[in-house]
Amino acid sequence: MHIVIISGSIREGRKSHRAAIFLLNSITQTANTAEILDLKEYAFPLFHERLRYQKDPDARVVDFAERVRRADGVILVTPEYNGGYPASVKNIVDLLTDEWKRKPLAICTCSDGSFGGTQVITSLLFSLWKIKAWVVAHMPVPKVGDAFAADGTPAEPEAWAKRAHHLMDELGWAMEARRRMEA
Questions:
Q1: Which of 43, 91, 96, 174 fits a 20 to 30 Å CA distance from 158?
Q2: Could you read off the pLDDT of 14-60 as tens digits, one per residue?
Q3: DSSP letters of 71-96?
């Protein structure tokens, strides 16, 4: 199975990307494959219309949508900014339509505080449910700057391996269920 990890922060000095790298490294040690779609690298403009209604969509948008469409599952890594998620994440949630429908999706919320981005989950879940994404798991990352080094190495390898395993168990189950339902 192939998993797309969306790294949602585009700001300088971002720390949530460390969690995305950690998840990539964790997944590639299993039978699954994975890739990171880094919103900072895509550098999308604010969208004025959903992809399916755009007359001449940017090639980066089409590439991003195809990668999400082909993925068996998605992990969305988002920081928490002032109790919410960044505009870069809202941008891609609103951009796609069919690509999200029934797509197994796990969320990794990150913050510098001790709650691990849990304040953002409610508003993000509402938007994802509205577009019919299948949200199956959540992994909060408190004190993300202390939890992971810049290269994704966890400060507490056993504890983070256990959390990643739980996240992947739930996402893996949903990906397999979707595969069987579509067969």
A1: 174
A2: 999 999 999 999 998 888 899 999 999 998 888 778 888 888 888 99
A3: -SEEEEEEE-BTTB--HHHHHHHHH-
The domain segmentation of the chain, as residue ranges, is 2-182
For residues 98 and 50, give the distance between their C-alpha atoms in angstroms, rounded to a whole number.
10
For residue 18, the tally of other CB atoms under 10 A from its CB is 23
Whether 34 contacts 105, CB under 8 Å: no
Amino acid code (one letter) for 107: I
Calculate ∠ Cα 127-130-134, nearest 5°: 90
Can you tell me the distance from the alpha carbon of 24 to that of 5, in angstroms, rounded to the nearest whole number? Answer: 7
24: phi then psi, degrees, rounded to nearest 5: -60, -50
Q: State pLDDT tens for residues 56-106.
A: 888 999 999 999 999 999 999 999 998 899 999 999 999 998 899 999 999
Distances (CA, A) of 66 to 96, 107, 149: 10, 20, 31
Domain 2-182 sits in CATH at 3.40.50.360
106 phi/psi in degrees, rounded to 5: -115, 150
Question: How far apart are the C-alpha atoms of 105 and 54, rounded to whole Å?
Answer: 25
Residue 123: CB atoms within 10 A of its CB come to 13
